[in-house]
Amino acid sequence: MFNDIGPLELVTLIVLAVLVFGPDKLPKVIQDVTRTIRKIREFSESAKNDIREELGPEFKDFEFEDLNPKTFIRKQLDNEDLGLKEIRNGFDLKKEMAEVTDAVHSRESDTSSASSAGAAGSSGGRIDMTKKPETPDPGDRPPFDADAT
What we know:
By secondary structure, the protein is an all-alpha fold. 61% of the residues lie in helices and 0% in strands. Among the domains are: 7-62; 66-112, no CATH class. It has helices at 7-55, 69-78, 84-90, 93-117. Belongs to the TatB family.
């Protein structure tokens, strides 16, 4: 529970507790805190046992730690019945990405050669940015859409 507390932090907490509660009340506060933690653990264990009893015998080996997604996935990946190790080992992401990259590059080279061959008669799907857009006549009205109003 307190695995990440170092010795300096522990000494700091003890000094702070002595300053806040005083040396006379500190033992009683520690007893109250430990009693409260013990009651919370007992309540938690009784709730777990009640849930296991209600789930029935098919969930006799159910662990609440399995509800953590990381633990659940790790446990399922280690399960040999599903054959997930073979699937995971058979999937090579680098190889797949290299194949996709090669396919994209070959497609780009095909389209660039086709557009250069047809460049004499057309623009090859490119927009001429030097050309100014056409301006409508001031007397022309935009089309009227009866459904839009």
